[in-house]
Design a protein that fits this description.
Helix content: under 10%
Structural class: mainly beta
Protein name: DUF6701 domain-containing protein
Pfam family, one: DUF6701
Keywords: Signal
Largest sheet: 12 strands, mixed
InterPro entries: DUF6701
Number of strands: 67
Shape: elongated
C-alpha cells in the first residue's frame, strides 16, 4: 500500500471515531458550500469502523435501496432524474463487478463519465430527508468524481474523490495510464501503486433543513506524456446501500440528542428490585422526544467500584420510552449504597446520557441510592380528575436479605413538597390526610405542606391524591413524626413522580367559525377546522395539555366512512399539518378535495411514558361523521341545432327539442369529485343525488318540459349526462334565451350558468298541382317565428332524410269532381332537406287519373320524431299544433300557361 494512501486512510480512521465532521473535515472530504451558513453533521467511515455496515441509524421511516433486490423503480420517496451523458457514459442501477467492492451487494449503481467529458445524474428525495447515507467506492482509477448533497435552504455539500493528501479530498488514486507507465519505465520513474477503498458517507442536516437531492458526477480523466501524446480514460462513480429517512408521514425529522434513565423514586431498597425506564430525547432539555427507535444498555455501577449491573433496553419506533427495567442492588455486594448510572444507545446519541430519579427533568446527577431501610412511595399514573392512591411503605432488610416491615400500627406525619411538570400551572393537586385527621391539603407548587398524617398498619399507609389537570407531579416526602412501633424510622425521606393522563381528547367539527354537531356538512375542497380538546374525567378542559415537557405528538388520522368498497372512486391524501395545543385546545385547519363522510381520530400513545394512551373520535360527538358534498356543479347545455345567419352560425334549440346537458360535481377548486357517483348497486352506497335542472333566467315564453332531472344513477366518477326540453307556451312565441342551473339536495351553486337560445319552429308543407302524367313536387321549408312572422330557419339539424315514407300519410283521395275515389293513387318519397329546404315527391297517378289527395307529415311517428316542428292549425283546435298538411292536385287544372282568370285590354 502506498504511503500516501496509508496517510489518507489513517486520517479517515481517526476522523471517524464518532467525531462529526463540520465545516472542515478531519479526514479528507471536501465540504464546499454555496454560503457557509449550514453545517450539519458529516461523517466518512471506513469498513473497520462502527456504522460502516450495518449503519448505526434506526427510524420507522428509514428506507434503503440496495440496487440488488430493491431498485429505485420500486422504492417510494426517491427518484432518479435524467442523466446528462457524454460519449460512452450513462447511468446504470444493475452494474456488477467481481469481486464486488467492499460492502456492496452483487448489483450496484454507477455513473460512467464516458471519454469525452463528464456524466451527471441526480437522485431526488420526494419528501426531503433528514438523513442520507450511502456506500461510495473510491475505485482504482476513478478519481476526480464528485458527489454533491443539495439542501432545502439552497446550500449544498460537495465531496470529491481526489488523489491528493489534502483536507479537500476523499482519497482514491489513478490507474497508471499506458503512456504514463511507458514513459515511467523509459525514464526510470516510479509509478503510483493502485489502491481501492469503500467508505460510507453519512450526512445529517441541522434542524429545519432537509436534504433534497444527491447529485453524482463522473468526470473523464486526461493523461498526457507530451502535449501531442494524450489519452482519455472513462471514470466510474459507484454507490450502493443508499439509505434515507423518508418523510412521507410529515413527522418532524429528528436526531437523538441523549437518553435518560428515569425512576419514579429517588432511592430504592437493597431487599427488592428497583424499577427504571429509559426515555429518548431529541433536544438537550428533553422537551422534544425522539421516537424513531433506540436500543442500548443501562449500566449500574456501585460507587466504590465494586459490583455492576448491565440491563439491555429497547424503545420501539413510535415511542420514546422503554419498558420497565428491573434491577436488584443487594447489600451483600458491598458497603456502598450509591450506584452510578450510565446508558449507551444505538443510534449513538449526540450527548451523554442523563438521569431523572424521583425528579421531573434529567441531569448529570446519576447516583441512585439503595438503602437497607427506607420509605417507599408509590403513586401510579392515573386519570386527570380521578383520585389516586399515594402509598407509603416503611421497609427494612432483614438478616437474610429479604424485605420486612415493622409490625404493629401507628401514625406517620410528613412534610410534602409538590413540583409540577408545567411551570405555569395554576391548577393545584390535593392530598387528604388519613387516620385521626382527614384534613384536605392543597399542594401549591414549591411550597411545603406540613402535618400530613397517614394512618399506618403493618408499615403501610395511604393518602388520597387528586389532580384535575394533566402532566407530571413530583412529591418530595419527609417523615417528620412517627408513633407506635414505627418510631425507629423517623427522618426517612423519598420522592415520587406520578403522571396524570387526560381522560379523553374530544374532536369537534368547526364550520364557518362555529362548532356544528348536527349534520355537519361542508363543501369539498373548502377549509374547515377540527377543534381537539383535552378533557379530565369531569369533562373540564385540561389547560396544561400541550405545555408538558417531552409531550409526544398527537396523531390525527382520517377514517373514510363513506363511500367504501366499489363505491369508492378516489381517496386523496389529507394534509394534517402540525397539531399544537394552547390551554388544552387545538384548532386545526384542514381541507379534503373529495366528497364523502369522514371520521377523525386523535390519539396520543404512551402519554409521558405512563403506558397510558388517550384517544378521541369525531364520531364520538357526531356519530354520522363529517359530510363533504360538492362545492358547486359544472353545467353545460348543448342545443342540437344551428343555423347560418349572415356571417354567424347561431346555435339554438327548437322549443320542445331535446337539449343535451352534462353536470359535473366540483370541489371548491373546480376539480371533479369522483366519489359523486351513482353506479353502486345499493342506493345506500351512492353519494350522487338526483340533480334537478331549472331555469335561472329568460323563460319568458315557456317552461322546462317533463321532469328535468338527472337521476343519481346517471352519475359516474362525478359526471352525469341527460337531456331536457324547453317548451313554448304559445307556438307564436318570440325566441327566448334561457339560462339554466343545476341543484341537488345539498348543492345549489353552479360554476357557470349556460344560456340556450330557443326558437319556436315548424315545418311548412305547401300545396302543389300538376299533370297526372308526371311526378309532383310539394315544397317543404323549416321555419321559426321571429316574433312577428315565420321565416326560413336554414338550420343544420333537420337536414338529410328527416321524414321517412312510413311517416307520410295520404288521406282523402278524391276525383276531379270532388268525390271520394279509389280509382287512382300515388306514392311518396322520403323527405330530404338541405339548409331547411326540401321537397316531397309524389309519383304520377297515370293518364286520366285525376283528383286531389291530402298529404300529412306525421312528425310524431318514429320515421320522423320531430314533434317540435309541428304546425299551428286551428283545424286541430284553438292555439293547437298539428302535423303539417297540404293538398296535392293531379290534372285538376289546366297548365298554368293556359289558365285565365281575367283579361283586360288596355288601349
Amino acid at each position: 500500500m502506498s504511503a500516501l494512501f496509508k496517510q489518507v486512510l489513517g486520517r479517515l480512521k481517526s476522523a471517524s471515531q464518532g467525531v462529526a465532521v463540520g465545516l472542515a473535515l478531519g479526514c479528507c472530504a471536501t465540504l464546499a458550500q454555496a454560503a457557509a451558513t449550514t453545517a450539519g453533521t458529516l461523517k466518512v467511515l471506513v469498513p473497520s469502523q462502527t456504522g460502516f455496515s450495518p449503519q448505526a441509524y434506526t427510524s420507522a421511516n428509514l428506507k434503503t435501496v440496495d440496487f440488488d433486490t430493491t431498485l429505485l423503480t420500486n422504492t417510494a420517496g426517491v427518484t432518479q432524474g435524467s442523466t446528462s451523458a457524454t460519449g460512452g457514459g450513462g447511468w446504470s442501477t444493475t452494474t456488477t463487478a467481481s469481486p464486488a467492492p467492499t460492502g456492496f451487494a452483487s448489483k450496484f449503481a454507477r455513473v460512467a463519465s464516458g471519454t469525452s467529458g463528464s456524466s451527471q445524474t441526480q437522485l431526488s428525495f420526494t419528501n426531503g430527508t433528514g438523513y442520507v447515507s450511502f456506500l461510495w467506492h473510491l475505485g482504482t482509477g476513478d478519481s476526480d468524481n464528485t458527489i454533491r448533497i443539495n439542501l432545502s435552504n439552497g446550500d449544498y455539500r460537495t465531496l470529491t474523490n481526489c488523489p491528493d493528501a489534502s483536507t479537500t479530498c476523499v482519497g482514491g488514486y489513478d490507474t497508471v495510464n499506458f503512456f504514463q507507465g511507458f514513459f515511467n519505465v523509459l525514464l526510470g520513474l516510479t509509478g503510483q501503486v493502485n489502491e481501492t477503498q469503500s467508505v460510507r458517507v453519512v450526512y445529517t442536516p441541522p434542524a429545519g433543513v432537509l436534504v433534497t437531492s444527491v447529485q453524482l458526477t463522473a468526470v473523464r480523466h486526461q493523461v498526457c506524456a507530451f502535449w501531442f501524446l494524450c489519452s482519455w480514460d472513462n471514470r466510474n462513480l459507484s454507490i450502493d446501500n443508499l439509505s434515507y429517512d423518508d418523510n412521507t408521514d410529515g413527522a418532524p425529522l429528528m436526531v437523538l440528542d441523549h437518553v435518560e434513565v428515569v425512576a419514579s423514586n429517588a432511592s430504592g431498597l437493597t431487599c427488592q428490585n428497583n424499577t427504571f425506564k429509559v426515555r429518548a430525547c431529541a433536544n438537550a432539555a428533553c422537551t422534544t422526544l425522539y421516537t424513531k427507535g433506540v436500543t442500548g444498555t443501562v449500566n449500574f455501577t456501585r460507587s466504590d467500584g465494586g459490583a455492576s449491573r448491565a440491563v439491555a433496553y429497547s424503545i420501539a419506533s413510535g415511542s420514546a420510552y422503554s419498558g420497565d427495567l428491573s434491577v436488584s442492588m443487594p447489600s451483600n455486594w458491598g458497603s456502598s449504597t450509591t450506584w452510578n448510572t450510565a446508558a449507551t444507545s444505538v443510534p449513538v446519541a449526540a450527548a451523554s446520557s442523563m438521569c431523572a430519579f424521583g425528579t421531573l427533568v434529567g441531569s448529570s446527577a446519576c447516583a441512585f441510592t439503595a438503602n437497607k431501610t427506607g420509605l417507599l412511595l408509590s403513586l401510579p399514573a392515573g386519570i386527570a380528575g380521578d383520585p389516586q392512591t399515594l402509598t407509603a411503605t416503611l421497609v427494612s432488610e432483614n438478616l437474610f436479605g429479604a424485605c420486612t416491615s415493622p409490625s404493629g400500627s401507628g401514625s406517620l406525619t410528613s412534610t410534602v413538597t409538590a413540583k409540577y411538570g408545567v411551570a405555569t400551572n395554576t391548577t393545584v393537586a390535593t392530598l387528604l390526610s388519613s387516620g385521626s385527621s382527614s384534613t384536605l391539603k392543597t399542594l401549591t407548587s414549591g411550597s411545603a405542606i406540613t402535618g400530613l398524617t397517614t394512618g399506618v398498619s403493618s408499615a403501610v399507609g395511604t393518602n388520597t391524591f387528586s389532580y384535575a389537570d394533566s402532566g407530571q407531579v413530583q412529591l418530595d416526602v419527609t417523615v417528620t413524626g412517627l408513633s407506635g412501633t414505627l418510631s425507629s424510622l423517623l427522618g426517612v425521606k423519598n420522592s415520587v413522580v406520578t403522571t396524570v393522563v387526560p381522560a379523553a381528547l374530544k374532536v369537534e367539527p368547526v364550520i364557518g367559525g362555529n362548532i356544528v354537531l348536527t349534520n355537519p356538512k361542508l363543501a369539498a375542497g373548502g377549509d374547515f377546522q377540527l377543534r381537539i380538546t383535552a378533557l379530565n374525567k369531569a369533562g373540564a378542559i385540561l389547560k396544561n395539555f400541550g405545555a408538558e415537557p417531552g409531550l409526544g405528538a398527537v396523531n390525527l388520522t382520517k377514517a373514510l366512512l363513506k363511500p367504501a368498497g366499489a363505491a369508492l372512486k378516489n381517496n386523496p391524501d389529507l394534509a394534517m399539518g402540525l397539531i399544537s395545543f394552547n390551554n388544552g385546545i387545538s384548532l386545526l385547519t384542514l381541507s379534503w378535495d373529495e366528497v364523502g363522510s369522514l371520521d377523525f381520530v386523535a390519539s396520543l400513545a404512551d402519554y409521558l411514558g405512563s403506558g397510558k394512551s388517550v384517544e378521541g373520535k369525531l364520531t364520538d360527538t357526531v356519530p354520522p361523521g363529517l359530510r363533504l358534498v360538492p362545492a358547486k356543479f359544472g353545467l353545460s347545455a348543448t342545443p342540437r341545432c344551428s343555423a347560418t345567419e349572415g356571417a354567424s352560425n347561431i346555435a339554438f334549440a327548437y322549443a320542445g327539442q331535446p337539449i343535451d346537458v352534462t353536470v359535473t360535481a366540483l370541489n371548491a377548486d373546480g376539480v371533479i369529485t369522483q366519489n359523486y357517483d351513482g353506479t353502486a348497486a345499493s342506493p345506500t352506497d351512492r353519494l350522487a343525488n338526483s340533480v334537478s335542472i331549472a331555469t335561472a333566467g329568460g323563460a319568458n315564453s315557456g317552461t322546462l318540459g317533463g321532469s328535468p332531472v338527472l337521476a343519481a344513477t346517471a352519475f359516474a366518477n362525478g359526471s352525469g349526462s341527460g337531456t331536457i326540453t324547453y317548451g313554448m307556451t304559445n307556438k307564436l312565441s318570440a325566441p327566448d334565451t334561457v339560462t339554466l342551473t343545476a341543484s341537488d339536495a345539498d348543492v345549489n351553486t353552479v360554476k357557470s350558468t349556460p344560456a340556450v337560445l330557443v326558437r319556436s319552429g315548424r315545418i311548412k308543407l305547401s300545396n302543389a298541382f300538376g299533370s297526372e302524367k308526371s311526378v309532383l313536387d310539394m315544397p317543404i321549408q323549416v321555419q321559426y317565428w321571429t316574433g312577428k312572422s315565420w321565416t326560413a330557419s336554414n338550420d343544420s339539424c333537420t337536414n338529410a332524410s328527416v321524414v321517412t315514407t312510413g311517416a307520410l300519410k295520404r288521406n282523402a283521395y278524391k276525383s276531379h269532381a270532388g268525390a271520394v275515389s279509389s280509382a287512382w293513387a300515388t306514392t311518396a318519397s322520403s323527405v330530404t332537406l338541405t339548409g331547411g329546404v326540401g321537397k316531397l315527391t309524389l309519383t304520377a297517378p297515370g293518364a286520366g287519373k285525376t283528383g286531389t289527395v291530402d298529404v300529412e307529415l306525421d312528425l310524431t311517428a318514429s320515421g320522423a320524431n320531430l314533434p317540435w316542428l309541428q304546425s299551428l292549425d286551428d283545424a286541430c283546435g284553438t292555439n293547437t299544433v298539428c302535423n303539417p298538411k297540404a293538398r296535392a292536385s293531379f290534372g285538376v287544372y289546366s297548365p298554368e300557361s293556359k289558365k285565365t282568370v281575367n283579361i283586360r285590354n288596355v288601349f
